[in-house]
Write a structure and sequence with these properties.
single chain, about 270 residues, alpha/beta, Rossmann fold, N-terminal domain of TfIIb, 2 domains, about 30% helix, globular
């Protein structure tokens, strides 16, 4: 049998294609605004599911003390390399976000890019939230971004849809074909990916995978936060924090549904 001798793309290299580096400055402007509003002196920040460290390193450039954690050893190694090249302080650890094992160390924790949605069961979501609770100091803040279930309901987006795109970064090119469906009786966004890659014009190994992403209603988020010891402070309809959602039933502005929420919550005293 002929053995496939093509090179494979690393997890960190693929993240560089899909990690939206163009939004890093805007995302960190939002985080910095929250930090300043909290009036913390020399706050300690926890970047959960930090990937290759794009947010953690930018916040470090701005003078903040940041610890980044990710379940992927490949991602963490690249984050450490990026920190060394940029001569930035920053600690990066391999940790599962459901078992962070930090005790009252951080003023603010955050997880962006809808990564929390990869936890599809209530048990995993609660384990993650409780682990984050333990990592925060009293009255610590937790910022997270998740997909908005009601936007898919409003759009009637329950049937199969297909999306194709091409991305390129530092000589690596990817062609993506993604088939998506949201079940009408659950809140799991199912995605099937077919991916082809090239580096400097040479084709690499292709990849197919299925990914489930949980999307949330505000009512269930409020309940999950309450069960984990958090108080929901504000909910925003976009990552610029310009659209404050006052009503849990509010799903859109100008008749256009918000695709995701950004939630600001606080650790309550037990």
């Amino acid at each position: 049998m002929h053995k496939n001798s093509r090179e494979s793309l690393s997890e960190a290299e693929e993240y560089a294609l899909i990690g939206y580096p163009q939004t890093t400055q805007q995302d960190c402007d939002v985080l910095e605004g929250i930090v300043k509003a909290a009036n913390c002196v020399s706050p300690a920040l926890l970047d959960i599911a930090c990937g290759t460290g794009r947010h953690a390193l930018e916040m470090s450039r701005r003078g903040y003390c940041v610890t980044g954690v990710d379940i992927s050893e490949d991602m963490v190694n690249v984050a450490r390399e990026n920190a060394a090249v940029a001569n930035l302080d920053g600690r990066f650890d391999v940790r599962d976000m459901r078992t962070l094992d930090f005790q009252a160390r951080f003023d603010i924790a955050y997880i962006l890019f809808n990564t929390m949605g990869l936890l599809t069961s209530n048990e995993d979501v609660l384990a993650f939230l409780r682990s984050t609770y333990e990592a925060l100091l009293p009255n610590g803040l937790f910022v997270f971004q998740v997909g908005n279930l009601w936007s898919y309901i409003a759009e009637g987006n329950f049937s199969n849809s297909v999306y194709e795109s091409e991305d390129e970064n530092e000589g690596v090119k990817r062609h993506l074909r993604m088939q998506m469906v949201v079940g009408p009786y659950n809140n799991i966004y199912r995605m099937h990916y077919d991916k082809r890659y090239w580096r400097d014009g040479v084709e690499l190994n292709s990849k197919s995978e299925d990914v489930d992403l949980r999307i949330f209603s505000l009512h269930e988020l409020d309940l999950l936060l309450e069960l984990s010891g958090f108080k929901c402070l504000r909910v925003f309809g976009d990552t610029t924090l310009n659209s404050v959602i006052e009503d849990p039933n509010q799903i859109c502005a100008d008749e256009k549904p918000y695709k995701s929420y950004v939630v600001l919550s606080m650790k309550k005293r037990r």
